[in-house]
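Journal club prep — side note

Before the paper discussion, L.F. wants everyone to see what a predicted structure for a comparable chain looks like in token form. Sequence:
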Amino acid sequence: MRTLLSLVFLAPVIARADLVITEIMCSSAHTDGTRNGDWWELTNTGASAVSLANYSWDDDPPVAGAVKFNAGISIQPGESIIILDEVDATTFKAAWGLTGTNPATSQPYQVLTRANFSTASFPGLGASGQDGVYLYNISNVLLDSAVYTTTSTSGFSRAWFTNNVAVAGEYSVSGLYGAAASTDATPDVASPGIAVPQPPNTPPVFVGDARTFWPITWDLLNSTFRIQAQDTVGQTVTYSIISNPSNLSIIADGATKMRLSGPPPSAGDHTFTIRASDGSLTTDQTFTLTVYPASVPVVVNEYNAVSGSNIGSDSYFGAVAGNGGDWFELAVVGTGTAASTVDMRGWKIDITAGGSTNTIVLSNDAYWSAVPAGTILTFSEDNTAGGGLDTGINRVSQRNTTGHLWSNIWLHDPFFINQTDSTFGGGITIDNNNTWITLRNSAGTVVSGPCGEGIASRDTDFNGYPDTLVGVSGSEVLALGSSPSPSVHPLTVTYHGEATSTFGSPNVTTVGNQSFAAYLNTNTPPRITSTPVRYATGTYSYIVTAIDPSGGTLAIGVSGLPSFLTFSGNTISNNRALTLADAGEYVIRVEASDGTYTTPQVFLLTVFNPSPTVILNEYNAVDSTTPVGTFLNGGTETLDIDGVPNAADKHFGRVEGNGGDWFELAVVGSGNAGTVDMRGWKIEIGQHDGPVFGTSAMIQLSTHHYWSAVPTGTLLTFIEHNTAQGGLDTGISIRNRRSTVGDTWTNIWIGDTTYLTYTDALTNGYTVTGGVVSGVAVDDLGTRLRIKDASGRIVFGAAGEGISPVSGVNDKEVFELQANPLPSVSPLSTAYLDDATGSSFGWPNEWSVNTQSFATYVYTPTPYESWIGGYAVADPSPNADPDGDGRSNRVEYAFGGDPGVADGPAGGQTVESAGGTVTWQYARRSGDASLVFSHQRSVDLTNWQTLVPVSVTTAPHPVLAGFETVTVTATAAPVSGKEFFRASLAP
């Protein structure tokens, strides 16, 4: 007979069999009356099936044959069946996930109810102690029993291994040996249908957190933190101290746990090691005690755990889904007095969520050197355009009335956040998954925190000490419900989850409203009320306005102005027309001072080239990889989300990912037919939503002759994948319609080293390995492009998502210019939009109401261009000599010849001398006014003199169309010997 604790009666002798009792639930916590009946579990440990017909069972005291199994019931090898004191097993199976098949038998789980036995009522399994289950065979021989003598713990089953040894601690533990919680509103923990052999002896396992938090001013005896280890086979665990912090002792807490007692040591992290032993095996565990200081200069005031759903309301965002994105709020308290300030330069803010930590590093801007006590600091992941809020220092300045200030910092602001040393990348994660916030000074020393869910606690027994961890749901914020002061620490009992939030304002909560009265001051910092103008094209003007809530006189100052800007009165403006040379980014700092306090406004001014010769026309944001490749306007390869195959690309059709990463430029020159020299130009791709353009990939054009004169009206597409990879190989003038509608299309594969110059991954930001290009990211994550000429001047941009359109592009759309491509197009153009209905790789853009026109670039080719276009030569420029015969393409054109074959002039030539005159005939092209010919003579082929002819006559060539025969008559040379004649072209 098996017992968990000593029995108080003499047990009958058991005839051991393969059937064992492995679990008893005698005190369910279920509130559903159809599944809260007592139950026990019977397991067949043998190799053969056993018929249970006429087997019987009873509780304590037992009577053989009391409750018999009906005929037809068998238990298979390895199977565990449930005997349930209910009339129906349906809801029980649903609660425990037993609706499928039992892996041990490949048959449905067997849950036997009162209908499967000889009686309409079961013996009751008492929860108060001295009860159990006894199993008899058909001969009334006792096969097994499970007896308990202590009061049962409600909601937990008593469990045994298949060798009759009780599991550690007697009761089922969720996550151990198949035990789990049921799905009832008030769940039970058990493992019905699952019985496991006793595992081999292993060292004890520590359970619970290995870290605890406590204020330095409170005795740890009041902490709910406990040290506990479990033995896998139920042996008694004893504890010993290997090391412990000074001033602390480890004392017993009941039979199975230990606790800390005594005043904590100094603030910071302290470790101590405990050894657990089961008599033969030991385990050492090092614990961390985080001690909070008695006073902190900055406290966590609030953070947003809302994920996707609506919050009740927010003082700034209202009832916005997601509540303005990921943000958190600090309260600067200094020494708790109005005159105190805190130097926060270089501070580090660690955000821990889901086990990973990202760090925000504050800059060394002068603002951080003396942040006034009473300041509410909000940090927003998104800017205003993204549904969050831009940086604003002293957006609210009410120290003279309520005692508080409010400054918001956008995390991607490079002037107030050190973007280089920060590690949050594209953003932070603040949610309801135990988010913690820790503040460290510039030396890395913790000055406040960690604070957050799973640390902040409630005092549920009202003894003045926290005892229940605060949880925050996905539709709440974590908020401090008391007034901020240096004595606030993360275990303050007024940290709690709140269904309303007060971003940037004193917290108003269900447990109390904050007061900032301690920070009242007759003087309050100025507030800059104007929004900076961040872009300029041709001209610029920004009128600075500020107010002093205290009624004083303000001085406005500006620094960082480039030479073409002037600050006069309260206006920043250009003092001359802006040009290509001015294009770039400039950091402007505006300050409003009342003599005591200074409020800064720092912003980036981007000056665009007012007359770009090349502009961004389109790029592909359709995602081809994550998490599953998408199609333009969603849907499938056959149909888009509108149910018809109408969203497609002019070249790729409805290809998943829309052809991969690509973008398209339009060469516009001066707005009419002509060419642009693009040799050595750089195209920079940025991949973020910050104000400063950051290059993630740089594509550099080579010095190939093609780039020396790219025709205006050319659409230049650049693509990461070649044809074999689902993209397109390089093709020069794939389509040439200059003479009819004005456009030409050239495609460049980014791995092409003939038309592009590739150095290495460090220089270019992407790799080219084995014919595969990787690292050119053109997508919906803030893609922007900037074009620079060979001198490094910014020809165009930055342009793209977040500049226009401000609202961005999603992963089923393209970014495109919905207007005619002209030099007047600015990156700020409202014609830059997202489009899901179609894209036009290599073709003029089309949108719902119009198509781009390239009519301004219609060009009638010169006779030379028409002629050279008939030959497939590597370099068609006039002065090139692709066939290497010493005659340029222009000479071949003028005197006849094939530019791709080494040959001589066409049409032949003759020289005759008679009677003191020389007659020279040759063939040349006629009808092209750009060809200006002259004649020369020489006697040594070195010194040439201008030939003054007696006469020059022309006649149509008898064989060569478009050519004429030229007859030059001149006086014979006055000296004997040879004489040479030649015709030459004017440059």
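L.F.'s comment for the group: Residues 1-16 have pLDDT under 50 and may be disordered. Keep this in mind when we get to the figures.
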